[in-house]
């Protein structure tokens, strides 16, 4: 008998005669963490969707314990002991946490007359029990629409783990989690591997991969480059395998000239979300905002952009006090916001690349309600080329693009609006090293061109690598400002944890 619980052998897959997977074979041992890495568009998600029965391979076979199986749906995959935590989260927003957790496998009890009804109390009880065992603090009765991205991710992780699968696919499971939550997840992974569960772990966070992976399979342009023992690879060697070239500087810092104050926030507050925030953003600089998940960073920039409204404080653009009550007004003031959740707030996934890119400038390319198709196509093609967006055509539907290319479309859309102030909230969440570098270079070029760039990131090395200054939020308050010459991970974490030099809360 084979030592592998799962084998995918010689998998081929094409879309519209464009090959996406070419003779890919991977094998998963019981109790191993098997990392699957590669740039966005390398074929990782397609391969996993074949395993989950979402797509059908053109050729090749799947074996479980040496027996060839056919998987035509996620339900069949679950029956065979395979579950998946998807990168793009798709909860039912108007259902509770416990209802989402047990969706498709509801706990039922007989009612009067022999009718079977969902036992909500028991589902809530079991949800609490599962959360307690995992160290997750969350109300089982809370509606999914009221949760943060990190909380939704934790629900999806909990659901997959609670299914008692033999193989769990984790696609970017930590993209929105705090370090504490990542630690909790890794503890659960250790428990699972001790019981013989195999983990297929997809992540662009290479530090995580080297922390937990036993073996690493590398995909590039739909082909398997190789499978390696994690202990035998360095980070630089892995990057070179992934991108086919050496990336000498992970965080390319472009020198810029700081200009006048573009945006000034004074004593900005919004209820309990954030209080008394004051800072300046200059033209020609990248200002980083650090802090833990829940510190109020996203809430702050949403308020600046007019999605929500402050309860106190002033906002000035080029020295003039403004009142922004709607995103359209923010756009009129030449502000752009790239949100952290591209799926929910950045894109229309069922529309084309062109439709998504051109939507912000319809007033410029339309007359009497009729869009200038030639102008729209020209502008779209220009930005596809400029941002190196990998797509078959401008007419390709957004859901067919990888996460990194979707993010580039969001950037293209906003750059077309010709903003002077660009706000990026977790701009590289779930994006591979190659695409990250493209976005880093773009941010640097924007600052060099005199744009004012405001960037939120939970990755401290990213903040330190790109920002000219960093302000840090904790519990809704600004706890510190650090100049580039004084950057250190320890200092950022000190401010993010709201600790003084002696490690005490302030």
Explain what this protein looks like in three dimensions:
The chain contains 18 helices and 24 strands. The chain has 506 residues and is α/β, with parallel strands linked by helices. The chain folds into four domains: 6-91 and 152-243, 3-Layer(aba) Sandwich (Rossmann fold); 97-146, no CATH class; 249-334 and 419-506, P-loop containing nucleotide triphosphate hydrolases (Rossmann fold); 349-418, no CATH class. The strands form six sheets. It has a six-stranded mixed beta sheet, sandwiched between helices. A six-stranded mixed beta sheet has the order 18-21-22-15-23-24, with helices on both faces. Strands 2-1-4-5 form a four-stranded antiparallel beta sheet, with helices on one face. The longest helix has 16 residues, at 179-194. The radius of gyration is 24 Å and the shape is globular.
Lay out the secondary structure.
Layout: E1 6-15, E2 18-28, E3 33-37, H1 44-51, E4 59-64, E5 67-69, H2 74-79, E6 82-85, H3 97-101, E7 108-110, E8 116-118, H4 120-134, H5 149-162, E9 167-171, H6 179-194, E10 198-202, H7 206-212, E11 215-220, E12 223-229, H8 235-243, E13 261-270, E14 274-282, E15 286-290, H9 297-304, E16 312-317, E17 320-322, H10 327-332, E18 335-338, H11 342-346, H12 353-358, H13 362-365, E19 366-367, E20 370-371, H14 373-386, H15 403-416, E21 421-425, H16 433-448, E22 452-456, H17 460-466, E23 469-474, E24 477-483, H18 489-496
Parallel strand pairs: 3-10, 3-11, 6-9, 9-10, 15-22, 15-23, 18-21, 21-22
Antiparallel strand pairs: 1-2, 1-4, 4-5, 7-8, 11-12, 13-14, 13-16, 16-17, 19-20, 23-24
